[in-house]
């Protein structure tokens, strides 16, 4: 499910705030690679990002749905959140 | 000293002390006002787990701001955390609540018949009906409250499992942690031993329960990215539900960083000022 612009912007905002990426905010697009490319995204940051997204949107992501794949790009992550909002 | 005739009374220094609680020596930081004449005081309740450490600076800033505005404040390190006695492995929700009751009683003993509370994040989940004892319920200020204890548990389990996800390991790390809790009775998560009992008790806590206590009024503070950002969708729903069950609750957004989670220690002077203005009303 492709994320709406509204969802994408909100996911990007949560990412930027959680990882303190202030200066990079405008360069992040749907195609921006996350895990393995974004140095700030270590294991602790992955956990905090998930938590921040859950709290912001009021959703719960079950353990068996969490994988490295969903953090491939910012677009993939936003699409995943969109699918949880629709569920 | 030969100062002028209009010397103001100096603000007392913050006072660290140990309170003798049922569960052992309870570390307390007291921020007394120039005089406890208002009959009011503030209990600051820290978040659970690592977020407590991230929030320490903000707790101290808030306490000093209240103190300067004439509202005495204090906070304690609950059993097995910070400088208090005990092992984190023995911590339970019941024990932590006892510690908070003890802190509130100490505050009343100092002269605060009316107890206001500032609860940060998951700290709000620990508030219960016995908190104020024979004192009077004051106002409740919430900083970015956590809605459900299950979120705290989830965070712990994930923390234990997150390394595996990043390493590209197979799924099910949380399941393995749950099994360890079951067989061993506790599990080490990011340096803290967490017991099966604590996990089970936390899983039953909901913010809704704290909102239904007899507060004079509740203010929900959310830290947002910029002036155009409103309350999060999740907070908006929770506040609407609280109003439906007749809690007197308002919300306020403050621009700032999510200081409870940021990699570097962050603070928000705007949040401290807004909270002071809310709690110290003329």
Describe the protein's topology.
The complex is a heterodimer of chains A (87) and B (282).
Chain A: H1 5-18, H2 43-57, H3 74-86
Helix pairs in contact in A: 1-2, 1-3
Chain B: E1 15-21, E2 24-31, E3 40-45, H1 50-68, E4 72-77, H2 93-110, E5 114-120, E6 136-143, H3 149-166, H4 173-184, E7 186-189, E8 192-195, H5 196-202, H6 207-211, E9 217-224, H7 233-244, E10 249-255, H8 269-279
Parallel strand pairs in B: 3-4, 3-5, 5-6, 6-9, 9-10
Antiparallel strand pairs in B: 1-2, 2-4, 7-8
Helix pairs in contact in B: 1-8, 3-4
**Major sheet of chain B:** 8 strands, mixed
Helical proportion of chain B, percent range:
25-40%
CATH superfamily of the largest domain in chain B: Alpha/Beta hydrolase fold, catalytic domain
CATH names the topology of chain A as: Non-ribosomal Peptide Synthetase Peptidyl Carrier Protein, Chain A
Uncertain regions of chain B: pLDDT < 50 for 5+ in a row?
1-5
**Percentage beta strand of chain B:** 15-25%
Q: How many strands, what sense, and barrel or not for the largest sheet of chain A?
A: none
**What is the N-to-C order of secondary-structure elements of chain B (H for helix, E for strand)?**
EEEHEHEEHHEEHHEHEH
For this structure, the CATH topology of the largest domain in chain B is Rossmann fold
Quaternary state of the chains: heterodimer
* Annotation field: number of helices of chain B: 8
Low confidence ranges of chain A: none
What is the C-alpha radius of gyration of chain B, as a whole number of Å?
A: 20 Å
Most extensive chain contact?
A-B, 29 and 32 residues
Number of strands of chain B: 10
Average pLDDT confidence of chain B is 89
Supply the CATH superfamily name of chain A: ACP-like
- C-alpha Rg of chain A, in Å? 12 Å
Would you kindly provide a written description of the structure presented here, covering whatever features stand out?
The complex is a heterodimer of chains A (87) and B (282). By secondary structure, chain A is mostly helical. Chain A has a single domain (5-86), classed as Non-ribosomal Peptide Synthetase Peptidyl Carrier Protein, Chain A (Orthogonal Bundle), CATH 1.10.1200. Chain A is built from three helices and no strands. Chain A has helices spanning 5-18, 43-57, 74-86. The longest helix of chain A has 15 residues, at 43-57. With 282 residues, chain B is an alpha/beta fold. Chain B has helices at residues 50-68, 93-110, 149-166, 173-184, 196-202, 207-211, 233-244, 269-279, and strands at residues 15-21, 24-31, 40-45, 72-77, 114-120, 136-143, 186-189, 192-195, 217-224, 249-255. In chain B, strands 1-2-4-3-5-6-9-10 form an eight-stranded mixed β-sheet, sandwiched between helices. In chain B, strands 7-8 form a two-stranded antiparallel ribbon. The longest helix of chain B has 19 residues, at 50-68. The radius of gyration of chain B is 20 Å and the shape is globular. Chain A binds chain B through residues 13, 16-20, 35, 40, 42-48, 50-52, 54-58, 60, 63-64, 66-68, and chain B through 146-147, 151, 154-155, 157-159, 161-163, 165-166, 168, 171-175, 225, 229, 232-234, 237, 257-258, 261-264, 266.
């Amino acid at each position: 499910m492709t994320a709406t612009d509204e969802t994408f912007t909100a996911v990007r905002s949560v990412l930027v705030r959680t990882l303190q990426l202030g200066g990079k905010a405008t360069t992040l697009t749907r195609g921006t690679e996350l895990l393995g490319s974004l140095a700030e995204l270590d294991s602790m940051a992955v956990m905090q990002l998930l938590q921040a997204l859950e709290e912001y949107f009021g959703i719960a992501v079950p353990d068996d749905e969490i994988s490295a794949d969903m953090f491939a790009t910012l677009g993939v992550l936003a699409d995943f959140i969109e699918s949880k909002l629709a569920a | 000293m030969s100062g002028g005739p209009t010397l103001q009374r100096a603000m007392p220094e913050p006072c660290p002390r140990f309170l003798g609680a049922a569960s052992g020596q309870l570390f307390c930081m007291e921020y007394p006002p120039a005089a406890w004449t208002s009959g009011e005081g503030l209990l600051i309740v820290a978040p659970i787990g690592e977020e407590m450490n991230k929030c320490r600076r903000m707790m101290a800033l808030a306490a000093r701001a209240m103190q300067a505005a004439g509202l005495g404040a204090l906070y304690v390190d609950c059993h097995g955390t910070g400088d208090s006695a005990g092992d984190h492995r023995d911590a339970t929700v019941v024990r932590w609540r006892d510690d908070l009751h003890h802190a509130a009683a100490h505050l009343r003993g100092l002269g605060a018949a009316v107890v206001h509370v500032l609860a940060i994040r998951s700290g709000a989940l620990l508030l219960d009906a016995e908190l104020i004892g024979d004192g009077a319920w004051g106002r409740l200020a919430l900083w970015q409250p956590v809605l459900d204890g299950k979120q705290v548990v989830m965070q712990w389990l994930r923390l234990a499992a997150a390394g595996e996800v990043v390493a590209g390991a197979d799924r099910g790390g949380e399941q393995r942690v749950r099994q360890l809790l079951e067989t061993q009775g506790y599990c080490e998560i990011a340096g803290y031993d967490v017991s099966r009992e604590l996990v089970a008790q936390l899983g039953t806590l909901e913010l809704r329960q704290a909102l239904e206590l007899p507060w004079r009024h509740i203010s929900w503070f959310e830290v947002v990215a910029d002036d155009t950002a409103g309350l999060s969708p999740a907070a908006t729903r929770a506040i609407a539900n609280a109003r439906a069950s007749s809690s007197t609750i308002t919300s306020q957004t403050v621009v700032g960083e999510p200081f409870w989670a940021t990699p570097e220690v962050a603070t928000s002077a705007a949040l401290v000022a807004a909270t002071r203005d809310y709690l110290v009303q003329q």
